[in-house]
Amino acid sequence: MGTAVYLGTPAHGHVNPTLALTVELVKRGERVVYFATEEFRAKIERTGAVYRSYGEALKTESAVFENVFSVAEVALTLAVELLPSIVERVAAEKPDYLLHDALAVWGKLTGRRLGLPAVSTFPYFPTSARKGSGAHRFDLEILRMLAVGFPCVIRCLRLMKRLRREYGRRGGFADIFANLEPLNLVFTSQYFQPYANTFDERYKFVGPQLASRSEFEQFPLESFEGKSVIYISMGTIFNEGTRFYQECFQALGGLNHQIVLSVGDKIDIASLGRIPGNFIVRNRVPQLQILGRADLFITHGGLNSATEGLYYGVPLVVIPQGADQLLVACRVHQLGAGVYLNRKKATPKRLRETVLRVLADASIRRNCITIGDSFRAAGGHERAADEVLRFARRRNGVA
């Protein structure tokens, strides 16, 4: 039995994709110590891992995640805050190897300082050094984000200089989002990853790591019997748009479809006003079970959410809210798995027309099934665990 330390990035879109891998490592006899923040304690402990707290981590608002440069500032600031204590705390666990999120700058620097075999995990698309993002529209959006987020860039440069001086960090801006190791697990398939053939053998496309989640209230799944189901969720960060939810009522109310709307914990459902009869509105829902029965998914385009829909062959209407979601939307469009809608142009009329058009297009459904098949063929959490253990044992000289 070996001991692994997992240094996660404390955000739902980064922790959730690692849970199935953590369960699998524990199942195979590994002791896994997982560092995160208190809101993730329960779900980490349910995997069988040992939870360790980062302590008072940086508090962020959802607006931070609308701009990749503000995300970079968060990652660098967390590194500066955590590194003085995290190296010593990780060493105290006597790990045989380390895993860390690709955004966890502090993870890579901790592994290097302690001389540990380390694995990086990508819950988002890595960018090809030769080809870029693979989406011209996203590259243009990055330029817009640069103009808006220039003050963040200046602060980032200061933080990068400090980390280089105090911890020997090397690399530029792109490396903040790609803290690479000799082994890098990418939680998607080669088919879905843009320019997958440009990545070398350090990258293993192991597919989505789906794990059932129990932190939701009881839900009447039996009410779906014989009905066409449309599911709407803006994820865990961009879910405070009361106006958008009301526009969904206007766009889709009265359709001969069962609409399920998940609004997150920050919304008082009563504040949304009159809810159409064909809507079920909840703060939390069993997303995987609903997607297993859905005919359409309206999503913000986080890679995890989009992946979960496509895993079940569900067509997507993607309304990106920030960060890398436009890149996911572009990839969905490129592969004919759904439609991208600009959030500023997603009027009730356009949303209704788009939903009906996607539902009527059988080719979109077929393309989604192809992507879902590629996810299952990639191996999932079992292959991910195989790769981790093979790497750790080889690096530690164990046959």
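Second entry:
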Amino acid sequence: MRLFLEPTEPLLFRTGRPFDAGESNFAETVFPPTPETLQGAIRAAIATYWDPDITLDEAFSKPELVDLIGNRSSYGRFHITGIALGRSKEDETVERLFPSPSHLVTMNDTQGNKQLVRLKPQKMKDVISDQSESNEWYYLLPEEEVRSKLKPLNCWLTEDGLAKALFTDEPLNRDEMICEEKIYQRESRLGIGMDNTTKTTREGFLYQSQVIRMERNYGFVIDIRLRKPGGQTENTSTDFFMDDVQTQHQLRLPIDGWITFGGERRTAHFKILSHGKNQISQIEREITGNLLYLATPAAFDGGWQPKQWILPFVPPIIAAISHYQPIGGWALNPGDSGGRSKTMRRCVPAGSVYFFDQQVTLKWPLTDYGTEIGYGITYTGVWKR
């Protein structure tokens, strides 16, 4: 079941950096929101609509609902299998947008125009090391001569653009690359701490926060699935999920409604997308390739990769990763605003690409944590030697 969330207010998604009143004066925001943020908002919305006549605490005391979406200690049969940005088109369909793969970079040509360049693995020569059984080492090089400094692409790709980037060597069209400024704007908000007892401002508690204002018709596309009763928790094969009609019926979600998420509980309008208008794309049909692309962040026990690659995977020969992304969160106490910080994880960011020297088949999300809530959503691709 695919949801389209269209924000109606500026959004605040806190980073992993602590922000304490009186100690820090600037609260940053991250974009897009992390799987932690989205899963919490969606599960809360499901519980709200599941039975409008009872409170959230009462809803989560119902075994039927807990079996579907879990509670504070489990996820039940709930799975997020797709996370992307989206834009609503005139024909009422929603087009998904994905982070640009890290092996796509730009440089300026002789006329000063920005030119797209692909990085590909190249074998190092005359290298001797005891760190590789095959004694083969690779590094990433552009396909053509470099005329200026290479820079990240810093844009979002349409589904067709991503499929072209993952499966072909064809150049991307301008309409397949969406600049960030067309999707959202960053704005600043000024605030000051208050003393609740005297109702006066507190000296030294002036602060500034950053918010995201998304452009009209842009939002988030989330794919939700329910595992069939008795299905294995670690298996995310299509055969282990209920179909979209059954999922909507079980979760009791209306065709459209309202949801709150992010800092300060900002609102967004959601609608369930028609099943016939959003067919499975090429990036989801192809499960075998020699390149893996992360569409969402992944948390690994081994840093930039799993501690051990389990069959059918073999270790990659090289990877294109920009930098780690710290993801944590805040676990609220029931009934009050207190709580505790969640574990902070250094995640491999969305857009990262892993190259292999043989074919690999993708059967589940590539992550050691958060498989159920959208971490490590991965698509295959092809790179030609």
